[in-house]
Amino acid sequence: QVQVVESGGDLVQAGGSLRLSCTASGLTFIDHAMGWFRQAPGKEREWVSCINSSGGSTYYGNSVKGRFTVSRDNAEKTVYLQMNSLKPDDTAMYYCAARYLYCSLSWSQFDYRGQGTQVTVSS
């Protein structure tokens, strides 16, 4: 059974940093691209970032580019999202998802999805 589990969400002040983790089990981790999405109350789910299966390519949404960094540790079957210079607009539930081989901008194209971890940025 595949499980994707996010952790690391917290309440942080604007300008602060946070690192999210996502561990995937029950799948061949090295064969999967890993994506991050977020959804704020009353808003549509937004694609945040993705890292391909090898970790050699990373992609970011315009709203987080230059502030967030995605990385992965294939030995630990974990992907990370380092978030710096956080803003109140970054407040959302953050979701991790796995897709075979390639990144996608679409939530529905990911094969496995986590339940999310809450990030709240206070002003």
Task: Please specify the SSE layout and strand pairing.
Layout: E1 3-7, E2 11-13, E3 18-25, E4 32-39, E5 46-51, E6 58-60, E7 68-73, E8 78-83, E9 92-100, E10 112-113, E11 117-122
Please tell me about this protein's structure.
By secondary structure, the chain is an all-beta fold. The protein is built from no helices and 11 strands. The strands form 2 sheets. Strands 2, 4, 5, 6, 9, 10 and 11 form a 7-stranded mixed sheet that branches.
How do the helices and strands follow one another from N- to C-terminus? Answer: EEEEEEEEEEE
Number of helices: 0
Task: Give the low-pLDDT segments.
Answer: none
Estimate percent helicity: under 10%
Q: Give the N-to-C terminal Cα separation.
A: 40 Å
Class derived from helix and strand content: mainly beta
How would a crystallographer describe the biggest sheet?
Answer: 7 strands, mixed
Oligomer: single chain
Broad shape: globular
Short account of what is shown:
The chain has 123 residues and is mostly beta strands. The protein is 0% helix and 50% strand.
Offer a few descriptive terms:
123 residues; mainly beta; seven-stranded mixed beta sheet; four-stranded antiparallel beta sheet; 11 strands; 0% helix
